[in-house]
Amino acid sequence: MEDVSTLVARQYEAFAYPEPFADLAEEIRKGYHQYGDPALYGPVLWPRGRPQRRLKILVAGCGTIQAAYSAFMNPEDEVVGIDLSEASLAHERFLQEKHGLSNLRLFKGNLLDVGSLGERFDVILCTGVLHHMADPGAGLAALRDVLSPDGVMVLMLYGQTVRVGVYMLQDAFQRMGIEQTPEGVGELRRILSELPSRHYAQDYIRAADELKQDAAIVDTFLHPQDRAYTVPQIFELLDGAALDFQNWIDSHPYWRNGGWGPESAIAKATDPLPAREHWAAVEMLGQIAGMHMFTARHSGSDLAVVDFDQGDLANFIPHPAPGLVRKSAGLFARGPYELRCSELEQFVLDGADGKRTIAEIVDVPALEAIDLPERNEFARRYFEHLWKLGHVMIGLPAD
Questions:
Q1: Which of 168, 181, 371, 392 has its CA 20 to 30 A from that of 122?
Q2: d(Cα 132, Cα 16) in Å, to the nearest integer?
Q3: Is 90 exposed, middle or buried (0-12, 13-18, 19+ CB in 10 A)?
Q4: How far apart are CA 73 and CA 68, in angstroms?
Q5: Residue 212, Cβ density class (10 Å: 0-12 exposed, 13-18 middle, ≥19 buried)
Q6: Distance CA 357, CA 373 (A)
Q7: What superfamily would CATH give domain 4-160+228-298?
Q8: How does pLDDT run across 84-120, given as a tens digit for each residue?
Q9: Cα three-residue angle 24-25-29, rounded to 5 degrees
Q10: For residues 358 and 379, what is the distance between their CA atoms, to the nearest angstrom?
Q11: Using an 8 Å Cβ cutoff, are 204 and 265 in contact?
């Protein structure tokens, strides 16, 4: 029987994923960005400040776009992409040539063999890959071994609660013998159109716009190896690879204030919990984490953890999260999430420019009618709220 890596490589040769596009600059102008990109998510990867040196970035399982995108967005850094699929790498090379990405090197190979490159990396991006491996722990350990001592990983794993219906359909399609062919995709689409409205996969299907693409249909429903994780299982996976969890790329699915107010029964039951227990409970209550994106470092690292109950709060530096846009007065949006603000809240949020501290944002003449202690407490509560919603990133004072 063929091993998983061979089957996965064959799939991506026939159905290159994600769907390739021809011009990085054009797509970025239209709003395309990748979660965890060091150019955009610096305060998440390095809360105390990005290292002031040329970084080596590994994109492990780069697919058709991610390595070229990373090289385009981080032109002063060196980017290495590795992937099993020659078809995927061919499109990466096309983008490399089109945009003159001299800081990009590409290799065909198995993630498990990444050590053969003989290099260590300051940043490792591995999104949507480990959950397709026969042994995700072995893959994560291979990446750990090439992570520099002060390096950071950006990881994405499927979330279990949102994919329950997907796995039901995977089981059914496997029993039906539906294959990874254009004919198989056509048959699968016809079956999806006949599913009952109550099927557990319907919410996923409605939300996943990429399912218009055949490659996404295959990747979602006909993948030979696919598993998903709960929050506690993520921590188990990291522990097994001697890595420490640092933070979520997007906190929104993990804190209760994304869906329930402070007076709700859920708030009263979950707010007293330690962070990890809180996240695990909210994941099961909200069921919106279709993918978990987070950062990790070597075990024993000096983690820079944002804590609004401790630390030098006045010197926290809020940065708007990528994708946060003002729709109208008092209304902001970030992807599927909306944020409605009072006039005061909007004024304070407008001050989050990634340069000023929280203390500097509220210490302005426009707010001097409010007592300073009241201003500071308002800013603490509001920026903590925005951070938990994922709408701002927080930079911490340098050591």
A1: 392
A2: 15
A3: middle
A4: 9
A5: exposed
A6: 16
A7: Vaccinia Virus protein VP39 (3.40.50.150)
A8: 999 999 999 999 999 999 999 999 999 999 999 999 9
A9: 115
A10: 7
A11: no
